[in-house]
Automatic annotation (TrEMBL):
GO molecular function: mRNA binding
Transmembrane segments: none
Keyword tags: Repeat
PROSITE patterns: PPR (PS51375)
Family statement drawn from the similarity comment of this UniProt entry: Belongs to the PPR family. P subfamily.
Name recorded for this polypeptide: PROP1-like PPR domain-containing protein
PANTHER family noted in UniProt: ATPASE EXPRESSION PROTEIN 3 (PTHR47932), OS07G0179000 PROTEIN (PTHR47932:SF10)
Residue ranges of PPR repeats: 217-251, 252-286, 287-321, 322-356, 392-426, 495-525, 529-563, 635-669
Keyword Repeat in record: yes
Pfam assignment, any one: PPR_long
Key word DNA-binding present: no
Domain annotation PROP1-like PPR: ranges: 300-456
Length: 715
């Protein structure tokens, strides 16, 4: 009779044979005996989950391109052996610094083996600590590093960006009586190659071959040449190839393709074709992927003639051209202004039954529109639609621009409506040609209707109008822009940015009074910003209204803003013209303290003032010579800096020596020299008078002189 299963209310004694496991299907719980009373669990029935039918509207195409972030990988120290973890913990307890406490911990171990050293160095990021540990291990009695420990130290140094120290490992190995093998040099070359350090690759290669006499194999030669060609060192790469042939090695297909790509990048097409010929004779013909890579390199370099020569070579070899090669060639020709040749290849591609990508259509349409062949561009659009594609926004933008260039505004507007009807979202590039064409034709009613349409479509109208006026000013000048703006003001399409664009454009053509009248009109409608005041400062200085310009400068400061560099430069020159030298130098200091990259003449102004402290005209002339070598011209700010520095720190005689030197070298005319010398004397008198007044105030004599009826002192 089989033993009965004990009831749950009678607990068993939990010995070795009677301990209960967690029940599962594959490991049933043993109750009562070693092989008896096996209780089998019935599998739990899973509920039937009803899957929803797939709906294309709920599909998110960006789900696969934006996967959920992966959990961080486990720390590499968790995979260490116990002794290696003990060493790493000893480093960590002492803040990863080599000290006597670390040495004491390491001495607790009977011996640290080379493999253990390599294991510890693989997880180290502190190069100083790793080097100390490496040398400590080498000082153990009877210890010798193996290749693994040397390689681990090289990787550790490279991780810490100490690649120059890593390059010295071959010498260290040689001094330890273990000459480096090809593997050690391969590691260093791979490190430098991955970091695009071509010259370092050549340094290690030269050391390997000429100093240690290790001859690389073919694959390592390929890696060295690839690194040198990629970093633009074609001549060094070809010298390595000469060494390759000198060693009697035979080229592989990879070797030939590296040479071909390098020569393509260097523009040496004849030599490249010669290498291709040798490749055909000795090994094999390049495939379509190799030729496509060559075409891509030459297209990127802009050498379209060489592209066509490579294309002919590909046809001569009987290589079947794939769609990728066609696309690379057609797009390159279209971008390079040789659209007709690209179009011929396009027709050849279509005749072979290849599927033409929409990008090819777009580049050809863009090139035809740029060349004024809008009819051919529309033929491509029809072909695109008949092929089952939908034209994208860039294609429509090009076609609208082409129609506007031909003054076919009605058709351009209809195409704009088609763009909206197809569900595309037009942007400023779509409407820019229409807006400019309407303004040039003075068709402002249609212009305003287009603005209303843009507003309904959700365009930021005022921001786009600012861009439009920038384009119109650049293309046709400010006069037409001001006329167009006069119509828009009636509709309320005004903003500070538009006023700034127009004011600045009027100032640049010398219409300062018109710019100021536009500024006055703007003030009556809205509050100007710092850009407006910066433009107005330049206008006022050119008209000689320096006081008004200073008021505008103060307005900017009250707004907690900074004037533009052009405003600083203009106002400083204006102050120097009217003899306000101290105020001009204060403005120079304020500019250099406020902007990130101030004018070079402002920087040299402070350098000149500092040189004046020596009261030596030769030092000041040396600063001026350096300034002119840097391409900076001498202006009244520089001359005012000489006057300010010499009046404060030097003498009138030394200042006159500087001006005389400039006069002898024809940097100053005789009349300008006289003007600046008079300004020097006046400024010196003013500074002297200021010092006298300060001394009278300091000694309390000012009130006594006023009591005696002195009228020389200011009230």
């Amino acid at each position: 009779m089989p033993p009965q299963v004990p009831q749950p209310n009678k607990p068993n004694n939990f010995y070795f044979f009677y301990g209960h496991r967690k029940p599962s299907q594959n490991r049933p719980t043993v109750r009562g005996g070693l092989f008896s009373n096996r209780q089998t669990l019935t599998p739990s029935s899973k509920p039937n989950l009803k899957t929803k039918p797939f709906n294309i509207k709920d599909w998110d195409p960006h789900f696969l391109s934006n996967p959920s972030p992966r959990s961080s990988p486990p720390s590499p120290t968790l995979r260490l052996s116990p002794i290696a973890r003990f060493i790493v913990d000893a480093f960590r307890k002492n803040d990863n610094k080599w000290c006597p406490n670390v040495v004491a911990e390491l001495k607790k171990l009977r011996r640290v083996t080379p493999n253990l050293v390599a294991e510890v160095l693989k997880v180290q990021t502190n190069h100083a600590l790793a080097s100390k540990f490496f040398h400590w291990a080498n000082n153990q009695k009877g210890y010798h590093h193996n290749f693994a420990s040397y390689n681990a130290l090289a990787y550790c140094l490279n991780r810490s960006h100490q690649f120059r120290a890593a390059d010295q490992l071959p010498e260290l190995m040689d001094s330890h009586g273990r000459p480096p093998s090809e593997k050690q040099f391969e590691i260093l070359i791979r490190m430098h190659s991955d970091a695009n350090r071509g010259l370092r690759v050549y340094y290690v290669y030269d050391k390997m071959r000429n100093k240690f006499g290790v001859k690389p194999r073919v694959f390592l030669y390929n890696r060295v040449m690839d690194a040198l060609f990629k970093t633009g060192h074609l001549d060094l790469g070809l010298s390595v190839y000469d060494d390759f042939k000198e060693d009697g090695l035979v080229e592989e297909s990879v070797t030939f393709m590296l040479l071909v790509k390098g020569l393509c990048k260097g523009g040496r097409i004849d030599e490249m074709l010669e290498v291709l010929g040798r490749m055909r004779e000795s090994l094999c013909k390049p495939d379509v992927f190799a030729y496509t890579a060559l075409v891509r390199i030459l297209v990127r370099a802009g050498d379209l003639d060489a592209c066509l020569r490579v294309w002919e070579e590909m046809k001569r070899d009987g290589v079947v051209v794939d769609p990728k090669a066609y696309a690379t060639m057609i797009v390159g020709l279209a971008k390079g202004g040789r659209v007709q040749e690209g179009y011929e290849l396009f027709k050849e591609m279509k005749s072979k039954g290849f599927l033409v990508d929409r990008v090819i259509y777009g580049k050809l349409v863009e090139a035809f529109v740029a060349g004024g062949k809008v009819g051919l561009a529309f033929d491509l659009l029809k072909d695109l639609v008949s092929s089952g594609y939908t034209a994208d926004l860039e294609i429509y933008n090009c076609l609208i621009e082409g129609l506007c260039n031909l003054k076919k505004l009605q058709k351009a507007y209809k195409l704009f409506q088609v763009t909206v009807g197809e569900g595309l979202e037009p942007d400023f590039l779509t409407v820019k040609p229409l807006l400019v064409a309407y303004a040039e034709a003075n068709r402002m009613e249609e212009f305003c209707k287009l603005l209303e349409k843009m507003q309904k479509l959700g365009f930021p109208v005022l921001a786009d109008l600012s861009k439009f006026f920038s384009v119109l000013v650049e293309k046709n000048g400010p006069t037409m822009a001001v006329e167009a703006f006069a119509h828009l003001k009636e509709k309320g399409h005004v903003s500070v940015e538009i006023y700034n664009i127009l004011t600045d454009s009027l100032y640049k053509i010398g219409e300062e009074k018109k710019a100021l009248s536009l500024f006055d009109e703007m003030k009556s409608m809205m509050e100007p910003d710092s850009i407006t005041y910066s433009i107005v400062i330049q206008c006022l200085v050119d008209l000689g209204e320096i006081q008004e310009a200073c008021v505008c400068h103060n307005k900017i400061i009250e707004m907690s803003c900074i004037p533009s560099v052009a405003a600083y430069r203009s106002l400083a020159k204006g102050l120097c013209k009217i003899g306000e030298i101290d105020e001009a130098m204060m403005l120079v200091r304020d500019c250099l303290g406020s902007v990130s990259d101030g004018p070079m003449e402002f920087k040299y102004s402070l350098t000149i003032i500092h040189a004046c402290k020596s009261n030596d005209a030769e030092k000041v002339i040396g600063v001026l010579n350096e300034m002119m070598e840097q391409g900076c011209s001498l202006d009244n700010v520089i001359y005012s800096a000489i006057i300010s520095g010499m009046c404060k720190h030097g003498t009138i005689e030394e200042a006159r020596k500087v001006f005389s030197n400039l006069r002898e070298r024809n940097y100053l005319t005789e009349s300008d020299t006289i003007v600046y010398e008079e300004l020097l004397i006046d400024h010196t008198k003013r500074k002297t008078a200021d010092l006298v007044l300060l001394s009278l105030k300091f000694f309390g004599l000012e009130s006594k002189l006023k009591a005696k009826g002195s009228k020389l002192l200011p009230g």
